Amino acid sequence: MTNDDMDDIFHALAHAIRRQILDLLKARPGQGVGELAQAFDVSRIAIMNHLSVLDRAGLIVSEKQGRKRCLYINTVPIQLVRDRWINAIDAPFAERIANIKYAAEGAAKRKDQINE
Question: Domain 3-74 falls in which CATH fold?
Answer without folding.
Answer: Arc Repressor Mutant, subunit A (1.10.10)
